[in-house]
Fold this protein.
Amino acid sequence: MTPDFDRAVALLRAGELVAFPTETVYGLGADAANPAAVAKIFAAKGRPADHPLIVHICGHDAVDRWAEQVPAFAWELMEAFWPGPLTLILKKQAWVPDAVTGGQETVGLRVPGHPLALELLRRFAASGGGVSGQAGIAAPSANRFGRISPTTAAHVLEELGSGPNSRVPLILDGGPCAVGIESTIVDCSRGEPVVLRPGHIAPAHLEAVIGCRPLIETASGAPRVSGSLAAHYAPQTPMRLISSERLLDFINAQRHKGDICGVISHNQPPQAGMPHLWRMLPADPIGYAHDLYAALREMDHAGVSLITVESLPDSPVWAAVADRLRRAVAGAGQP
Ligand code: TXA
Ligand code: MG
């Protein structure tokens, strides 16, 4: 079915919300220049209002309308990785509303790599670009605050509902997201690049383009980057990370206690006779990222009492998924 772009653009122009696919996760979008529309995003998600949102734009040429003092290395990163799973934090233009920046002097910008998201952005621009004419779509991940990001349209529906009486009147369906975890965030507003959130684009990829290793700011718990809160991306079921060596013993012990155990592994194949819900994910970080959030959701639905996850290798290529897993464990099981 062709996505209903006309309705999506009409809703954005009317200050309403539209959920749409990106290559990372589904976003919950609104006209980024319309504070009343942006406020609806925070209400729908239950997200604290001082958390800044990413503004999605159609291409490099829109950057100067949202940001100023853009350093040369930021242009190099855009050239190399946009459209794609990279968000750049830049000094904002004075007009950019506090509603979208959380009152900060910076704005997060990204050109998403999903054809449907790009087409929505282009059509929004062609229709006049919203209240500012600058055609930015503010969009956090389309989940309730702190929960697992959606990687299919069905996940968005489950998180936020849809339809005339819901806060989200329209969800555009673009199939499952190719990447599956949120974009890499690089702060370009401090004179040198600083990775605020790891993702599919790794520090080594950034270094190959800009010629120096970016700094990495690890979780501070500061709400400035909500993905940096220790507890985030979390299922409702408690979770444990267990090393490959201890996995079978641990699961057996859980069974003897009478627990209904869910298992997510990547090396250890499911064992015959173990009556658990067992998902074996691909043993490479790209495949694993693609499937991780759907697997956590499945475990939540199945009503298991504990999600046991086989620990990941301690290597840079696994850093982004390991980061999401750590936060999921920290936030899991909370009401
Ligand atoms: O892949 C993604 O980035 C997805 C898709 C929809 O684009 N979006 C996403 O948005 O993950 P959200 O809101 O769930 O996470 C965006 C992160 C937040 O942690 C937010 O705090 C940070 O970006 N952020 C946005 N603007 C910022 C700014 N000016 N300074 C620092 N952090 C910022
Ligand atoms: Mg999010």
Observations:
- The radius of gyration is 20 Å.
- The CA atoms of residues 249 and 255 lie 10 Å apart.
- The pocket of magnesium ion (ligand 2) is lined by residues 140-141, 149 (CB under 6 Å).
